[in-house]
Amino acid sequence: MLKYSHYKRVRYSETDKMGYLYYGHYAMYYEIGRTESLRAFGMSYKQMEDEEGVMLPVVSLESRYLAPAYYDDNIEIVTILKEMPEKMITFHHELKNSEGKILNRAKIKLFYIDMKTGARRSIPDSLRKIFTPHFT
C-alpha cells in the first residue's frame, strides 16, 4: 500500500455562499493529491506524458461528502493506492481538516492510454518499478 499526504488551503474563490468549499472543487483536490503523490514517489505526470507517452484519463469518480470544509481551512489531501495498479489505477482519497476529521472520501479509477495510438495499455514499466516494492 502507498499513502501520501499533501496540504492545500481552501481559498475564498473556492467557497459557495455558505462559506463551504463548493462541491464542484473536490475533484480538483483529488487531482492535486494524485499528481503530488506520483511526484513524491518518483514520477511526475509531465514525465509520464513526455517520457513514457502515457496519459491517465479518469473513468470513474465516486465521492462521499461527510462534513463541510470552510474558507481558510488547511485541508490534508490523503491519497492511497491499496492495490498494485496494472490495467487501471485506483486512487482512494480522504480530505481531512486540521483536527483530523474526515470531511470527504473518494475513489477515482483511471486507465493508461498510449498518447500516440490512443489505445489502452498496461502500466508503464517505470511506474511498475516505483510501485512494486510497496506491494510485495
CATH architectural category: Roll
Q: What is the N-to-C succession of helices and strands?
A: EHHEEEEEEH
Number of strands: 7
How does the major sheet shape up? Answer: 7 strands, antiparallel
Q: What's the CATH topology label?
A: Thiol Ester Dehydrase, Chain A
Which residue ranges are poorly predicted, with pLDDT under 50 across at least 5 consecutive positions? none
Number of helices: 3
Radius of gyration from the alpha-carbon trace, in angstroms: 16 Å
Compute the number of structural domains. Answer: 1
CATH superfamily: Hotdog Thioesterase
How much of the polypeptide forms β-strand, as a percent range? 35-45%
Mean pLDDT: 96
Question: What report would you give on this structure?
Answer:
The structure is a single chain. The mean pLDDT is 96. The N and C termini lie close together (9 Å). The protein is built from three helices and seven strands, in the order E-H-H-E-E-E-E-E-E-H. With 136 residues, it is α+β, with helices and mostly antiparallel strands. The chain has helices at residues 26-41, 45-52, 125-131; strands spanning 2-9, 54-55, 58-65, 74-81, 88-96, 102-114, 120-121. The protein has a single domain, classed as Roll (Thiol Ester Dehydrase, Chain A). Strands 1, 2, 3, 4, 5, 6 and 7 form a seven-stranded antiparallel β-sheet that branches. Helices cover 23% and strands 37% of the residues.
